[in-house]
Amino acid sequence: AAGLAGRRKGEWFEVALPDHLAGAGLGGVAPHLPVPPKLLRELSAHNGVTVQGNKLRLRLFPREPLGMPPDWMDINVLYEDDFALVVNKPVGVEIHPSVKGQRGTLANGVAAYFEATGQPVRVRPVHRLDKETTGPVLFAKTSLRKRCLNALCATKKWTANMWRSSKASWSKTRAKSICRSGKTGTILRAAASARRESRR
């Protein structure tokens, strides 16, 4: 998770706390977590946080409904991990429905991808691109990642110049490092740069 060094165990994310926080309890650990206070309260209210000794566990991966009907389409996945999915949006496709009952959007396609790959994850696009613009679109798989990335997006201004070209080839190591940083601008600039390199 953003700023947390740990590993996923089913629906939970487990973090090994530093020695000075071991045994501090949730009240002592909370100020040191890169987790929005509101989300931490929500997790606590639903028994989604535990602290035992030097182990902190957060229920970041509960089973969720997709949130929209799935429509099968070819999805060009640029990067994916437990927290984020980056896909390339083709020209002429909207990111999400703009009117009730609309189908065939990229979000509907991502819903079908999650369903086909056995991921009970809500579809959460983090930002938008115009219908006639192509480029990488970032989807957050967890509420924590969505909130952190929304806050970052609110401080950025994106231009259509970033999204010119249609395909990318990311180094897996490079992509993992960039996406785990949680920096939306870095993720998307890297994807655009990779697509430009693939055209040379």
Give the structure's gist in a few sentences.
By secondary structure, the chain is α+β, with helices and mostly antiparallel strands.
Can you walk me through this structure?
The chain has 200 residues and is an alpha+beta fold. It contains 6 helices and 7 strands. It has helices spanning 25-29, 37-45, 106-116, 143-153, 172-180, 184-198; strands at residues 6-9, 12-16, 49-52, 55-58, 76-80, 84-89, 135-140. The strands form 2 sheets. Strands 1-2-4-3 form a 4-stranded antiparallel beta sheet. A hairpin with a 3-residue loop joins β5 and β6 (84-89). The longest helix is centred in the last third of the chain and has 15 residues, at 184-198. The chain is elongated. Mean pLDDT is 75; it is low at 149-188 and 194-200.
Label this structure with key terms.
17% strand; three-stranded antiparallel beta sheet; elongated; four-stranded antiparallel beta sheet; 6 helices; 7 strands; alpha+beta
